């Protein structure tokens, strides 16, 4: 996807499947009945797993790092490094890895078997997420094992800032304490990479959905609706971390409501 002079390339790692009615819901009965086209034949929500590649100036940046080598009943990864190589990018070429948040399906290729996967990269994440997932007394041991090897290459932040030319971090907490969106901008054009601010396009169309994965569901819903208000009927592009094919699109007024329209 071109944004002015910059190009954002999806890097697909694999696929996840979750029972849609268990992980995303809204008041008023079975709201998924109004969106059958978003589910597979089993009623599952299919989640693309991966991240995005951005080259800007002398920087090669990854936004999120897939699910890693996980293969189970819900998640099937393993393709990230091959997909990255297909773009002409080796792991040694990556200068920055920035995380939208630290859930397992976004940090899978941060390390592998205790070794840092991108040896020249600086890793960046909001400090509230690092505190929650790694440094908290009740932090998940699996997250600590995966992420602790990054400490010597880690930079944390706590506010909006410029990561690289044309790439800005914008904290959007709710899904996790340090959930962050990234704004790519060039020549008056913008694209927002919103991570798990939304898991399905239905959340951009209707304001009252909640996800079981949200650490603070009320804050997550409020943040999502604030972003949707900002994006609706503008030229700004938006991509979430799990939309089919990591597709970009726009939020447009549709009748009395809104819809995400892929481009």
Count of helical stretches: 6
Largest sheet report: 8 strands, mixed
Q: Considering DSSP H and I runs of 4 or more, what fraction of the residues is helical?
A: 10-25%
Classify the secondary structure makeup into a structural class. alpha+beta
Rg, Cα atoms, Å:
17 Å
* Counted beta strands: 19
SSE arrangement, N to C: EEHEEEEHEEEEHHEEEEEHEHEEE
Portion in beta strands: 25-35%
N-to-C span: 9 Å
Question: What are the segments in which pLDDT stays under 50 over at least 5 consecutive residues?
Answer: none
Mean pLDDT: 97
Shape: globular
What does this protein look like?
The protein has 263 residues and is of the alpha+beta class. Helices cover 17% and strands 35% of the residues. It has helices at 20-23, 80-85, 127-135, 141-147, 202-205, 217-231; strands spanning 2-3, 6-19, 24-25, 44-56, 59-63, 75-76, 96-98, 111-112, 115-116, 122-126, 154-157, 161-164, 167-171, 180-186, 189-193, 210-211, 237-239, 249-254, 257-262. Strands 1, 2, 4, 5, 6, 7, 10 and 11 form an eight-stranded mixed sheet that branches. A five-stranded mixed sheet has the order 12-13-14-15-17, with no helix packed on it. Strands 3-16 form a two-stranded antiparallel sheet. The longest helix is centred in the C-terminal third of the chain and has 15 residues, at 217-231. It is globular and about 50 Å long. The model has no long low-confidence stretch (mean pLDDT 97).
